[in-house]
Design brief:
Oligomer: single chain
Distance between the termini: 64 Å
Strand order of the largest sheet: 1-2-3
CATH class of the largest domain: Mainly Alpha
Strand content: under 5%
CATH topology of the largest domain: hpI Integrase, Chain A
Mean pLDDT: 81
Number of strands: 3
Shape: globular
Order of helices and strands: HHHHHHHEEEHHHHHH
Low-confidence stretches: 123-132, 237-251
Structural class: mainly alpha
Number of domains: 2
């Protein structure tokens, strides 16, 4: 129950009390010290953006919207492109942190009404700050795939042969665009996870919750993958790239599918850099920035739009429940018009 009397604390006072409570929870093991410090950092940012002397109860849903937008536009010192603002994951984390503070403030009697309940800013409405999470249109996706396919045909003359990554970059973009793995699944992939059965190349993907799924690769993607394994993957000490095409070798980086030219397994951030590099080769009329997760949306959206069975799409993406697909199915321009032009009840002799 909420206390009978409201305690009108300033934002700074409420933040100090809340952070003290959060850090106390590390003693009992309810929170890890690192998680507690993340909360403390986000709450300190809230104080900075809202104003230390502002009364917490005076903040409205509109104020919360303004705070979320202000945080989203702040330069992220950890990223090279300072003008790019906060990453989507940082925005989501900040929202969770201040939401937890206001939830506690409501129970403690520091605010009459939780202003988060009146916030209207959502992940898809933050002033266009996260359009890269949406699926690419068919033209945009085909432009990116075309640029990826062309990479091996135009290697950079400025690089030494052992520093060329065109085939690897093509594999990354093609797998993300056509199979839609989570970026964590992609960077964890090992050479031995790819196998051939009855002439079809499969990728055994190790997903969430210890679940695995065997996904067949489109012929064009399988061809580029094989070419990468045979002549594009860096040869490590004592290991031939050709020998790795069929089996895994050793432990760690020597098993990894995706390696830097120095022979190290790629990290999640490296994948975004590859996508951005390939995008620069796309015709400007077809180009739009996109994240690895946006390409996962792209896979789901276009498979479903092409009337591929929903359960098959679910299995490709590695979801345990069909209902989850709703979050990955994005709206495509003109799709309603196409659906009405090819209405199933109007096909045949009586329909046009």
């Amino acid at each position: 129950m909420r206390p009978a009397e409201l305690e009108r604390l300033t934002v700074a006072e409420a933040a100090d009390r809340y952070v003290e409570l959060v850090r106390a929870r590390t003693v009992t093991g309810a929170l890890s010290p690192s998680t507690a410090e993340v909360y403390a950092r986000d709450v300190a940012t809230l104080v900075e953006l809202a104003g230390a002397e502002v009364v917490l109860d005076d903040l409205t849903g509109e104020d919360v919207d303004a705070l979320l937008l202000a945080f989203a536009r702040r330069p992220d010192g950890r990223r090279r492109a300072a003008s790019g603002g906060q990453s989507p994951s940082s925005q989501a984390r900040f929202r969770r942190s201040i939401s937890a503070l206001f939830k506690h403030a409501t129970l403690a009697g520091w605010v009459q009404i939780n202003p988060m309940t009146a916030s209207t800013v959502t992940a898809k409405e933050r002033g266009g700050l996260r359009p890269q999470r949406r699926a690419l249109t068919r033209e945009q996706a085909q432009g990116l795939i075309g640029a990826a396919r062309a990479l091996p045909e135009a290697p950079s003359a400025a690089k030494r042969r052992d520093q060329r990554t065109e085939l690897r970059d093509a594999v990354i973009v093609l797998l993300l665009s056509t199979v839609g793995p989570r970026v964590s699944e992609l960077v964890r992939a090992n050479v031995e996870d790819f196998f051939t059965n009855d002439g079809v190349r499969y990728w055994r993907i190790f997903g969430k919750g210890g679940r695995t799924r065997d996904v067949p690769l489109p012929d064009g993607v399988a061809g580029v993958l094989q070419e990468y394994l045979e002549r594009g993957r860096p040869a490590l000490a004592g290991t031939g790239a050709g020998a790795l095409a069929g089996t895994g070798a050793g432990a760690g980086a020597d098993k990894a599918l995706l390696l830097s030219w120095r022979g190290r397994r790629l990290a999640r951030g490296d994948v975004q850099a590859v996508i951005d590099r390939v995008q620069r080769r796309v015709d400007p009329d077809q180009r739009r920035s996109v994240t690895p997760h946006g390409l996962r949306h792209t896979t789901a959206t276009h498979l479903l739009a092409d009337a591929v069975d929903m359960d098959a799409v679910r299995r490709v993406l590695g979801h345990s429940d069909l209902s989850t697909l709703g979050r990955y199915r994005d709206e495509l321009p003109g799709e309603l018009e196409v659906a009405m032009r090819t209405h199933p009840l109007l096909r045949g002799k009586s329909g046009r």
